[in-house]
Amino acid sequence: MLFELLKAVCLGIIEGVTEWLPISSTGHMLLADELLKLDVSSEFFEMFLVTIQLGAVLSVAVLYRHALFPIRFERGAPPAIKRDCLALWGKCLVACAPVAVLGLLFDDKLNELFYNHITVAAALVFYGVIFIIIEKTGLRIQKTGDPTVLTYRDALFIGFFQILSLMPGASRSGVTILGAMLLGASRETSAEFSFFLALPVMLGASFLKLVKFGFAFTAVEAAIGLTGAATAFLISIPAVKFFVGYVKKRGFTPFGIYRIALGIAVLAVYFAGGAAAS
User: Fold this and answer.
1) 242 by DSSP, 3-state: which?
2) How far, in whole angstroms, is CA 183 from its chain's centroid?
3) Least C-beta-crowded within 10 Å: which of 107, 161, 173, 268?
4) How far apart are CA 175 and CA 164, in angstroms?
5) Phi-psi bin for 276: left (phi > 0), alpha (psi -120 to 50), beta?
6) What predicted TM-score, i.e. pTM, was given to this entire model?
7) Can you tell me whether residue 19 is helix, strand or coil?
């Protein structure tokens, strides 16, 4: 059991970093699964991946609690602050609506069809190139400040962009950041709104996976899930802080290059495995 818990810690670390950087946690999990195969059923492993994502996402609730949660509703708080907080949640829900509907209808089918090395590698490379192009062309920044500068129309546009994240390897944070940047939002604003969107998306996904899997966890499975989620949570806090600080100064080009390199690595592992099998 100890060895399985150590694997869960390693996977939690990978998730805690890659969930927030626009480099695809799916691509990294494909590679990690080649080396760190948890001794669990395929059904539980699918649940485990959502559980560690949820652990990572809860870090946003802690880091941005003053912007998102009822501490802003203390007695005497200015009405404008209350309106901003409610409006921010409203925009997050608007942005999550398209992917929630399509995810409920097609998520399992899309995973069945496209959760493979070739598709993930193609998505990694494609969006890596897009990030580099956007940085090189220098989109005009029109919206700066915290995510409240985004309108409901902006949120809906980003929500439709988020549909692209249903394709494995696209990166949820990556496509939502791209959508916000295309609207003229600054890198920091785009990144923070992407973080906020993760809360309702991953809470909903975790609930659905839990209902689908059921509550029949063994003690070992529960320990593995909690260990991975706790690790992802703890690692995510410095990862989010690093990412926001980094993109303020340097942009997304290094992440685009990294995505391309990772896509090539995923393909190399796939073809090497095929060659070994033959």
Assistant:
1) helix
2) 20
3) 268
4) 7
5) alpha
6) 0.86
7) coil
- In a 13 Å sphere around the CA of 111, the CA atoms on its Cβ side amount to 9
The partner residues of 143 in beta bridges, in order of sequence, read 185
- Per-residue exposure over 187-218, b if at least 16 CB sit within 10 Å of its own CB, e if not: bbbbbbbbbbbbbbbbeebbeebeeebeeebe
Q: What is the pLDDT of residues 194-253, one digit of tens each?
A: 999 988 888 887 777 777 777 777 889 999 999 999 999 999 999 999 999 998 888 899
**Alpha-carbon distances of 139 from 23, 134, 152, 157, 223, rounded to whole Å:** 21, 7, 21, 17, 46
Angle at 122 between CA 179 and CA 255, to 5 degrees: 55
Q: How many domains does the chain have?
A: 1
- pLDDT tens digits along 174-203: 999 999 999 999 999 999 999 999 888 888
Name which residue leads in pLDDT, 138 or 131: 131
The pair of three-digit structure tokens given for residue 241, joined into one six-digit string? 């802080």
**CA atoms of 110 and 36, how far apart (whole Å):** 24
Give the amino acid at 182. Answer: L
Residue 212 lies in domain:
2-277
Q: What are phi and psi of 169, to 5 degrees?
A: 95, -15
CA-CA-CA-CA torsion sign (72, 76, 82, 84): negative
Q: How many CB atoms lie within 10 A of CB 266?
A: 28
CA dihedral 36, 40, 112, 92 (to 10 degrees): -80
